[in-house]
């Protein structure tokens, strides 16, 4: 079991990462005063309420309440585990993630599996260059018009014929054999009999967003079946969540605006050969909801490309049905159907880059494909046919998220069938978003209990712990939150360079962590001016409360059992302090 990641490394990592740059690489942010804003990626909204603070290295949505650090954003947006998010940020900074000794689990350590698959990738690439039977594979790739440069870009290799070539190279002991099994590189007939899964195939490594091999697709060169063989589901590879070529597309184009979804590995590679570097392919499965979210996290526009035959149009319709619930305002889906018998590989080799790009540009919008497909199923010349179209369309359109696109689609349906739109969309009307008014600092903070107010001010402004002559005495109060406030101050005095983000990560696995995040989010829209004085005054008020409580306790004891000499002297001092105030 791997050791925990040292907290000082997390602190250093968060100091190096700019959360604005990180989030802006996935969601376009706009400057709004000293903060940055966008429509929230975690819920549907028309008015931006998602705020990112460069100063705090923190994000918060005032609509749905989502908030967190750069690590938290990757965990929620990319669905990463904590360790994976840390490793992703560390890789961006060129850092290796250290581990402490100890037994605290941080999730499965998949690094040995990544290493095994990387070794397999290198093995297949070497076989393509040097194996005695690789000539057929090289000739096949040349026949498909692929250059050596493109083959290298996509890491294409060759699995030679034979049952145990990979086993002989990598399976030297039981541990290595176990990793080959777990990473999907072996097949088994019986418990004691295993053999190479990929044999006599051209090999396409499937890479994740960091460029690590997580699986393979193998293409046979003759007429055997299956034509394509993918890695099975493994701890690293889930075909319903991955897209072949996405890593290469992001690497080739700094700011992708569009992705073209095709059906085969060779389609992706052939399009790249003709300078179309934004094609990706599903991995032997229909488009899934996870695919749609991954696509739209990457680009605002998705074009699906299918063969124009009946099977291709059926696949296009399934993609449309999958896309509907994900069509927030600002997202676009279009459909390109090629001439029957053609695929992107054959088409672009026939007509070249410019004509194929024109086809993409002229692809049918989702709305056109939807209404044309439904209209073809009914008699549009009759009232009954138009009514039938409305009945077919309504359950599809109600899957669209509330917003302008949904409204426009129902408008079009109304125009198509000759009915006012008001009678078409029967979903409940959503109230217009209400923007919260930013109350003055004192008026807002005055509604919070003092201890909660002090914690909120400190978590949002860690530098306040370095202020001189902070009031003391409040530490004796027996109130909820006082131990947390004391711990925060002690940590910040010992480590004065910690940020809001660092503190929140320190408390991630503790019960108070979720409350600290909410408190930091609460103060995010408030003006910074006056917060330092408010923190001082809040501690002072708590110190006075502690003084009052101590005085009252001594007076009650004096009226009862009596006071010791020391207690009498203390009471005298406390009463004098009270009189001075």
Oligomer: single chain
> Uncertain segments of ≥5 residues (pLDDT<50)?
102-106, 427-439
Distance between the termini: 59 Å
Helix content: 40-55%
* Domain module count: 5
Please give the CATH architecture of the largest domain. Orthogonal Bundle
The global form is: globular
CATH superfamily of the largest domain: DNAb Helicase, Chain A
Largest sheet: 5 strands, antiparallel
Structure write-up:
It is a single chain. Strands 1-2-3-4-5 form a 5-stranded antiparallel sheet. Strands 13-12-14-15-16 form a 5-stranded mixed sheet, sandwiched between helices. A 4-stranded antiparallel sheet has the order 6-9-10-11, sandwiched between helices. It folds into 5 domains: 7-92, DNA Primase, Chain A (Alpha-Beta Complex); 111-230, DNA primase DNAg catalytic core, N-terminal domain, CATH 3.90.980.10; 246-370, 3-Layer(aba) Sandwich (Dna Topoisomerase Vi A Subunit, Chain: A, domain 2), CATH 3.40.1360.10; 377-423, Up-down Bundle (Pheromone ER-1); 441-580, DNAb Helicase, Chain A. A hairpin with a 2-residue loop joins strand 7 and strand 8 (193-196). It contains 24 helices and 16 strands. The model is unreliable at 102-106 and 427-439 (pLDDT under 50). The chain is of the alpha+beta class and 581 residues long. Helices cover 47% and strands 12% of the residues. The protein has helices at residues 7-16, 19-24, 70-77, 82-92, 111-130, 135-143, 148-153, 165-170, 174-182, 246-252, 265-273, 289-298, 310-323, 344-361, 366-375, 383-397, 404-417, 441-445, 450-460, 482-494, 500-506, 512-523, 531-559, 565-580; strands at 30-32, 35-38, 50-53, 58-61, 67-68, 157-159, 186-190, 193-196, 201-207, 213-220, 228-230, 258-262, 279-281, 301-307, 332-338, 364-365.
